[in-house]
Amino acid sequence: MTIYTFIYLSLKARITALVPDIKFIDLFDDQPNRTEEGSGNDLPAAYLEFKPVQWTQRAGGSRFAMMQIDLHLETNREGTSTASNTPDSQLERGLYPLELMGQLYIAIQGYNDGNELCGYDQMVNIGDTPNTGEGVTRVDIMSFLFRAIDNTNVPVLTEVTVSQSINVNSSST
Question: How would you classify residue 59: left for phi > 0, otherwise alpha for psi between -120 and 50, otherwise beta?
Fold first, then answer.
């Protein structure tokens, strides 16, 4: 398994467990901008985009990088589907994407794979995509940096057992 697959699957599991309102998680492939109706996936949806990485070679075959991953959050422009249309419910619907962004930030902020191969470092940016018209979805983006160590090229040590028998009963002539 590559470091990218490992990080993606780990983050997907963490988001699924800690932000249950997110209904769909995938790698980013510009899904929200494919049509005016958005991606067509169940919303809210989160997409993880791995930015180009500059790896630094380390001794023994491992390599290190500060890896940027952008999280694209796609929600309905109307927010949650509250039946009421009072000013309070409109405010609640409008703030819903911000609430989700806060929950995602908390989930990702605590990420560490447990093996010190990858861990959250910092959030570097937050924003939204340029308005592409009067689509029914909105997309907010959060950029995160992760410290990553890739050990896929490190040789695996195998256990070697050496046995030697010495005959102490033999006589020397």
Answer: beta
